[in-house]
Amino acid sequence: MNPIKNYIDKKYVKPAVEKAAAEKRKVGIKRLRNMFDAAVLDRFSLGLNDDYKINPDIRSSIINARKNARSIFRNNPYGGAIRTRTLVHTIGGDGFRLQVRSKYPDGNLDDLANTIIENKFSVWCREDYCTMTKRFSFVRVQWLVFLQLFRDGEFLVRMVQGLPKEKNPFGFSLQLLDPDDIDETYNEELSENRVVIMGVEFNEWKEITGIYVRKKSLYNEIYGNTNFAERQRIDASEIIYDFDPEHPRQARGMTKLSGIIKTVFEVDDWDKSVLRNARATSKKMGFLYRKHLEGPDLSEDENDDDAGTELEGSGEGTDDGKGKKYMDFEDAMIESLPYGWEYQLSDPKFPSEQHTPFLKSMLRKITGWFGYSYNLSAGDLESVSYSSLRGGEIDEGAVINFNQTLFKDSFLVRVYKRWLKYALLYGQLEPLQYALIEKYGEHEWMGPKKPWVDPGKQAEADTMEVERGWSTDIKKAAERGNDYEENLKEQKKAVELKNKYWVKPVGDDSADSKNKKPKNDTDSIDKEADAIDDDDKKDKNLTIIKAG
Q1: What pLDDT score was predicted for residue 146?
Q2: What is the DSSP letter of 48?
Q3: How many domains does the chain have?
Q4: Is the pTM of this model over 0.70?
Q5: Beta bridge partner(s), residue 208
């Protein structure tokens, strides 16, 4: 027996084996015979079975995740592109448009009431009344609120109600707050089965009953020191707070960028490394090494008899004072070195072959996380066919519709209902009565729609669907963010204006053209309708004769 081997086995090997066996029993790594593969824990599944508890995970991550998400949108070009693309296609330049759909008991639209409400709401949407700061119109409010929802994972808006008429004739305005104002450090169990989780107060049914925010002065915002600010409770009736939950017990929202923050930073580091390497390659840097010890030192004075060959150009200051030698390079300059010194070229290769595939792979991860097409989001339209481009547009359109529905339900609907209440109470919608507030509350929000790759072919397809009864003109107009009835009204008005302000065609100087008027389209429409009625009557008479 080898005593050295016995000593090593007893001292190191045996304790390590026993420790590994204990850990194996502890985590239950031993696989059962009928166990699902998804539940197996072994050395190849590390990190696949994290202990998932939604609120503790959010509590430990919400601050840093929000900071990183804001940094990406502010400083990273890829994050900025995602931000712009999402805002443009979800909210658009004109924002969502209100369409009131109040009806009479017989089902017909109350056009008078709808017009009054829509006109007054457009007045309130101005910056004078919409926000307490008197700086933001309702379109800009939509941009900011959706940006909070998308970037921070949650948004917070305070509804200021009962304002004096001389300040706000509608008695209602909005105050935009920052989700960072919520005191996520406050957790407490209150009376009456109420509990505060990360600054949000819930009752026993998980209904939000209040929000605890840090009360801070405007001066403190200069330094951003609000950790020790006084805490203030805002009742749920005064706020609009929401997020897109992924769990029914979730108390706070998490940024939608949580899964790609690390990837974005890695791509940014790669770009910086590539840039540094490209600069080094273009400058052709190298190393100085001493081949013969008997030669002069680079730091010796050039007038010394032993200095050897004089250094041209930037030979001064070749010693940094710490014994390190260096040379400064300029474009198109050749240095002569003293005897005993040689220059060894350093030629770092620019990663031209790996750069594009790596960048595409990482950007596909980033855009795929949001459900966007890589080619459209990154502007990479090389070797992209029409069918693949159209498929990407369809998928993106579905994602945009999802985001729009979330934004409408969580913010726009709540704003309109509260605005309608105070507009009726303050007499801004006369002669409409407050007793019919439920009737006037029926409405829709028309948001922007993503344009098609080939609008002509899409229009032909829509026409075919309507002709075959697969869809209707009303649905097709709604898919484009329009109201079919409003379209018909505008078409009728356009025909009337054309008949009223008719101008002779350019280049037509004939005498007949001066008195000739264009064909009245409304008359042709009426004639077509009469012809359809006559055909229907003939069909009915023919049916009666056959039945007899």
Answers
A1: 97
A2: S
A3: 4
A4: yes
A5: 202
